[in-house]
Request: fold
Amino acid sequence: MTNAHSNSVAVLALNPAVDIGYELSQLIADRKVQADTTAYHPGGNGINTALALTKLAVPIYCCSVIGGESGDLFLRLLGDALGENHKIFRVEGETRLNATLLQKHPPSQYEVASQGPEIPARVLNELDECFLGYCANGYGVLTGSNPPGVPDDHYRRLVERIQAQGGRAVVDAHGDLLQQAIEAQPYLVRVNNYVLEMTTRQRLDDIEAVAKAARDLQQQGIGKLCISLGVRGAILLDDADSYHCTAPRVRVLSTVGCGDALLAGLLAADLRGEDLPAMLRFGVICGSATAAHPGTLLFTPEEIEQSGYELELTALNI
Reply:
């Protein structure tokens, strides 16, 4: 990092959720199925990313929107995990209740996400100013879906404002939110293989095809672009270089939150001034360690510190 940038990190969590995880033997149509276990966790992309950064000892600020009784439950589940630097904005309506169903036979994962409460224009403006003040000329993290009341160009406008005040905009989104944010040329973008396929409108079956499509997207003005590939690891590229890192072998219990953990790992390594290969390696470890947990639980710091992960890092020259 240069002296022009600070190490402050702010995360915008427009659409937090109470994540409910069910483990069950098998889903059967038109029949009530008893879950073997049920777990409740605070979640949503922004909250997951903020929690993962906290686990990595990165001091963060977080601005989030909370509504109704489900919002109260969310806050009880969250506790003081984000500390006193968590700014909460109350709105009418209910915070999302999202469900993840982990079926054992055959192994499958199903996810259901609700929409979230509407954010009035006045509250959205206050939220934006709070977020921009927190990230200053450091990092501003924009991740997740837009709830009702938030326009599709919202991330693009925030990226422009973050960059204009000397900061570095980090984006993890999809659809119109992503397309418009890219126009403002953010510092770091993370998407998965499916989102890349939808964005580029092409089938991407192998690492080389993914890397070439990622290069075309990165050349639209993105500083660093990461494509997460699940069990195949991830790709990271900037203007000069491109790398692929395989994922370590872990018993995958749930993929919820893996992308958020990967993003947090990339950002934590970038804050330390690590080069592109080290950033990618650390991000993949964070995402893979999260996959080894059930429901929406993230990695633990102890898992990240162990050195037994077998990873293969390859320069792609694309």
